[in-house]
Amino acid sequence: MGELFRSEEMTLAQLFLQSEAAYCCVSELGELGMVQFRDLNPDVNVFQRKFVNEVRRCEEMDRKLRFVEKEIKKANIPMVDTGENPEVPFPRDMIDLEATFEKLENELKEINTNQEALKKNFLELTELKHILHRTQQFFDEVSHAQFVAGVISRERIPTFERMLWRVCRGNVFLRKAEIEDPLEDPTTGDQVHKSVFIIFFQGDQLKNRVKKICEGFRASLYPCPETPQERKEMLAGVNSRIEDLQMVLNQTEDHRQRVLQAASKTMRVWFIKVRKMKAIYHTLNLCNIDVTQKCLIAEVWCPVSDLDSIQFALRRGTRSGSTVPSILNRMQTKQTPPTFNKTNKFTSGFQNIVDAYGIGNYREINPAPYTIITFPFLFAVMFGDMGHGLLMTCVALYLVIRESRILAQKSDNEMFNMVFAGRYIILLMGIFSIYTGLIYNDCFSKSLNMFGSGWSVRPMFSTKGANWSFETLDRNAVLQLDPAVPGVFGGPYPLGIDPIWNVATNKLTFLNSFKMKMSVILGVTHMLFGVSLSLFNHLYLPLNIFLGFIPEIVFMSSLFGYLILLVFYKWTAYDANTSKDAPSLLIHFINMCLFNYNDPTTKPLYSGQVLLTPLLRPFLLSSFVVIKPKLQFSGKHAGRRTDAKMTRSLQFNFGDVAVHQAIHTIEYCLGCISNTASYLRLWALSLAHAQLSEVLWSMVMHLGLSSRSGGGFFGLSIIFSAFAALTVAILLIMEGLSAFLHALRLHCEICRRRFYSLTHGGRPRQRQSRLRVLFHGEI
Fold first, then answer.
1. Shared-domain flag, residues 536 and 666
2. Could you give the 3-state DSSP secondary structure of residue 147?
3. Longest dimension (CA), the chain
4. 205 and 65 share a domain?
5. Residues 520 and 664 in one domain
6. How far is CA 727 from CA 324, 467, 695, in A?
7. Same domain? 289 vs 435
8. Rounded to an integer, what distance in angstroms lies between the CA atom of residue 251 and that of residue 138?
9. Per-residue model confidence as pLDDT tens digits over 360-373
């Protein structure tokens, strides 16, 4: 995995490739996938580069393959995908590939042309057959008149009839009959409904008008004999020709299917070969050619840890094309290298989540390893339900177990592919949801009575040892339990929340307080963790530790860290007997921020509060007013990302830097408050998910369980199906997507800002250049 917690250390290297081996060397480097070539000809037009003709030939082969692929899809023939990664063809093999593709394209075009002509002839004969078959009754009604017979699309009949009436002034007689079976259009292949018509008229003038109207409406006119005997003989001849033509069409279609099926077996391999060749020649166009025309010079970014693998790939490429070895020479540069993070099938999903918002600068902390734990955990805090988490885990496990088969099938469903790519993310989200559901004691909105209840069911003002009778329980809909009376465990519930809260009328009040405090604690801990990570980014400029990291960590610890300590202190210092006298945390925190340490109306939370709280004032003030000068603009402290020319030309203005940093400091301090409030979404979405689950149970599932009739089982089956469908659609998909997006925001917009600089001048920072390699992501 290399350096998992930072981007890989990169170096700029110069390659000297012999002309005979350059193609093979680039091919080996592309298969390795560890180098990014730089363009050494930025001022040269694309059409003036050395290998432009080879690129055009590859594009032409790709066009021919796309034509064949279109024909294969039109014929509904599946393309075989064995997952094979073929080797790159040698340059001399390009002529054979071009000849193969040219022959295949010409053969398919010839087959299509012949087939279209045959289908057109078949359509004409079929239409003539329907005319001869259906016009006999028309001739019985009208005799001794000129006529025109033909076929027209059925939807054009009303307009066609009105046009004939208006142009011919009602001096024509139109008869029509529908053709029951649709006819195939030879050009588009669509099924078209048509009708047979015959028009009777008198005189050549009307004849010309009728034919022009028929031509305008794209009606097909056919010769039709006047006598029944002639029509019968012509119909017999037409039927015979249709049978012969149908046999030829079947043979043509069989030949076309054989050609396409043979091509479908190698289409993917051909595509990969052609596009790899195109990528190689495109890369060779980025290189310089020395004056002797015998050597190509390239510059590449590559990981330092993979230099041995790159050298070995160059040796493999050289053996296949030249006796002179290729040379790799590391270069010194002040340019910022691209960011490169190695991933595997487990970490790639989390790395994609991180990179979707912004890619860190070179050698900055990579948030992906920490996101593997924090992202599914914060999701589970909002989604926490044992039942829903178990369903999500089962779906993800199915995708993980059958991942090899699913990858081999190569699904084209974009939504499914996106879910499959995040299968390990979904798996961890489901596992963490089971854990948080266990803590909340919530399974499909119901509690599990695993250890019994820790409350004692005794009246609040009864004598010790007197229990409620069944008569008392039957007469009273609501009873109050005394928290001061010790229960079964004599202390806190062993794991999670006591199941008795599920039937309590003040359940929501209790959970509101619990989950709100929990959200603040998790949020402040998450932000402090992000600030702590910034320490590793400041190691390149140690002065930032004293002027950036320490004031930030002191400010958050003195304000919000102190608040968390007060929450834990109040939980442990007060019990059921003394909780009524406990002072308000909110009032105490407000007084601390207003420097009001001697409020006579508020009881101290702990002894020594009046002495300890004022000590936090200098820490808050010092961290708030510290202004960190941007020392990277001075030549003495120039950072590694500062260009030397810019350093010499730019003058250091302490006043502007001080004002800018003061604004940044105020924004940071205010942002800490607003971001802490943003973590309250953990509380809000958790309660929303629990309430939706409870409403769904009470309004759907409860109806089936409360039935006492004989057909209750069948009703319960139907209701359970509706309950399962709504659970998947609303609570798993919609609520899961909502919790996913909110967890993504908490990571990207709030936590990563603590150790990344993702904005500059009030605008989103441009994405850092990421390592781009051949073949990977292009094929």
1. yes
2. strand
3. 123
4. no
5. yes
6. 67, 40, 11
7. no
8. 38
9. 788 888 888 999 99
CB-based contacts of 479, cutoff 8 Å, min separation 6: 459, 468, 472, 473
Separation in Å, CA 266 to CA 33, 66, 97: 25, 13, 12
Does 547 map to a domain? yes
Residue type, 691: Q
User: Using one digit for the tens of pLDDT, what is the confidence trace for 562-620?
Assistant: 889 888 888 888 877 777 778 888 888 777 777 676 667 777 777 777 677 766 666 66
Q: With the C-alpha atoms ordered 733, 737, 740, 742, is the resulting torsion angle positive or negative?
A: negative
List all residues 6 or more positions away from 628 whose beta carbon is below 8 Å from its beta carbon: 544, 547, 548, 661
For position 640, what pLDDT does the model report? 39
The pLDDT tens digits for 292-311 are 778 899 999 999 988 999 99
In single-letter form, the type of residue at position 631 comes to: L
Q: How far is the C-alpha of 31 from the C-alpha of 85, rounded, in Å? A: 10
Tokens describing residue 678: 């943003």
Q: What are phi and psi of 609, to 5 degrees?
A: -65, -40
Task: Report, in this order, helix, strand and coil percent for the chain, each rounded to 5.
Answer: 60, 10, 30
- Taking Cα atoms as reference points, which of 110, 99, 98 lies closest to residue 71? 110
Looking up tokens 């002179």 gives 324
Q: What is the DSSP string of 57-72?
A: HHHHHHHHHHHHHHHH
Three-class SS state of 358: coil
Q: Is 7 a domain residue?
A: no
What is the distance between the alpha carbons of residues 195 and 526, in angstroms, rounded to a whole number?
74
Under DSSP, is residue 246 helix (H, G, I), strand (E, B) or coil? helix
Provide the residue range defining the domain that includes 640.
Answer: 510-678
Q: Which of 11-25, 166-180, 264-278, 663-677 is least confident?
A: 663-677
pLDDT band at 143 (very low <50, low <70, confident <90, very high): low
Q: How many domains does the chain have?
A: 4
Least confident of 43-57, 144-158, 661-675: 661-675
Q: Please name the residues in contact with 107: beta carbons below 8 A apart, sequence gap of 6 or more.
A: 259
Q: Give the residue carrying structure tokens 């266990």.
A: 438
Q: Whole-angstrom Cα distance, residue 279 to residue 775?
A: 7
Phi, psi of 489 (to 5 degrees): -90, -15
Please report, in angstroms and rounded to a whole number, the separation of the first and last CA atoms in the chain.
24
Q: Tokens 């025309």 — which residue? A: 293
Spatial separation of the C-alpha atoms in residues 405 and 399, rounded to whole Å? 10
